[in-house]
Amino acid sequence: MNCRLEGQGLDVAYNDNLILRSVDFQVEDGKVTVLLGPNGSGKSTLLKTLARTIEPRAGGVILDGHSIHRQSTRSVAQRLGMLPQSSTAPEGLTVRELVNLGRFPYQSLWKQWSKRDEIAVSEAMDIADVAGFADRPVDALSGGQRQRCWIAMVLAQETDLILLDEPTTFLDLKVQVDLLELLVSLAHDKGRTLLIVLHDLNLAAAYADTIVMLNAGKIEYLGSPDQVFTAANLKQVFDLDSHILIDPESGRPVCIPKARRTAPTPVPLNSCVAS
Q: Residue 60, CB half-sphere, CA atoms under 13 Å: how many?
């Protein structure tokens, strides 16, 4: 497996609370990898650790063959982009101004805004389909449009590695699907490598090349959706009773939760007769 980003023996803790335990994980190049797990399983912590936002207590993160913590922030940012949860833009900031921020790894006292920067921003807005409202304030847009603007900002970094923490949260289903279609196209058509934290099991099964199921700070299962997305695995990791069906069009697995309600008690016919 080709891999530019990996975690080796990761122990990560908040204060004395150990969140990740001896995690070894490689992000496969040119693929969409989705991290799944119940709340508190460590999926967002793993993403942040791989992005160098959190430093592990033990183990290390390797980017392009070298420890990510021994590389400069600017160097890492030119190769790895990170979109955290619930990003908010300053009031009144326009879409173009937000996307321009993606060029920060290439700016310095000696190197100011260039034609290359302008081209990168324009291409990022075109790919994310936000060029039509480039001069509008970000906070005046819908939730889906705002999220596309943040994705455009990450794309403007021109990195091959993109990490996204729950990018579809609080969005309508149609908007979530459109956003995931965009992200998948970045990997399959543009050769980008994406690592995404998701909550929706069926969206993960529909769009991931690789699914990673975490539980209690450890990777329980890793593989393609058809390998990992089983009723037994969902029961073990999420305590979810379910049926797994196969979508006849895509061939992807679909989770149908088992209803736990008992059948309603039949109502006697004479009880519906008015006295």
A: 10
Question: What's the rounded Cα separation, in Å, for the pair 176 and 72?
Answer: 34
Q: What domains appear along the chain, each with residue ranges and CATH number?
A: 1-79+160-175+183-222 (3.40.50.300), 89-158 (no CATH)
Helix (H) or strand (E) holding 244: strand 242-246
Token representation of residue 95: 């879409």
Cβ atoms 10, 20 nearer than 8 A:
yes
Burial letters 61-99, b for 16+ CB under 10 A, else e: bbbeeeebeebeeeebbebbbbbbeebebeeebbbbbbb
pTM, two decimals, is 0.89
| Distance in angstroms (rounded) separating the CA atoms of residues 34 and 193 | 11
Q: Is-contact 233 213, C-beta < 8 A? A: yes
Q: How confident is the model at residue 171 (pLDDT cuts 50, 70, 90)?
A: confident
